[in-house]
Amino acid sequence: MPPPLTYKIAVLVFLENPAGEHLLLLRAKPPNLGIWSPIGGKLETAIGESPFECAVRETREEAGFEITADDLHLFAMIAEKAYEGESHWLMFLFRCRRPIPALPPAIGEGRFGFFSRTAIDSLAIPETDRNALWPIYDRFRDRFVALKADCAPGQPVRVEIEEITPPSADRSPAAAFED
Fold first, then answer.
1. 172-178 — which CB contacts under 8 Å span 24+ positions?
2. For position 17, which CATH number holds?
3. How many domains does one find in the chain?
4. What's the pLDDT tens digit per position in 70-83?
5. Which residues contact 136 (CB under 8 A, 6 or more apart)?
6. Quick one: DSSP state of residue 16?
7. Residue 168 pLDDT
8. What is the pTM of this model?
9. What number of other Cβ atoms are within 10 A of residue 53's Cβ?
């Protein structure tokens, strides 16, 4: 029997400029080397960091943008089971209500770019972002949704809705996402 997988907790922060373009980071390090993604990172669990505290810290560290928890809207929580067969992830997705005024300078993690939502579809982004993350953003960015995903290797990723606030008809099986 294989050893149990560890659970990792992380945040992603969706930032936009005043023109409504999304800030993405072209990652210079694995695991997402050479592909674009929103900023984010792992919670510092040893100090009891909350998801909101982590989102504020990651926004400051990666984008150099000072925000507070009041600037954030938690729009999704997704539990990813067996992501790439390596670990389980609990991800908190935030939308920053305050526009970032300018493109941040490059950092050790990579370089930044602003992109329209349409342009993101043609970028090099993780397939799970293309097939699940951005559709979740498109549908729920102004609400809240709790999701679970089975990401076991060799299987199509299926994302299921566990709860939507406020409740709606979006809970139908057709509302699930597949990768």
1. 177/131, 177/132, 177/135, 177/136, 178/131
2. 3.90.79.10
3. 1
4. 999 999 999 988 87
5. 76, 78, 93, 145, 147, 159, 177
6. B
7. 61
8. 0.89
9. 15
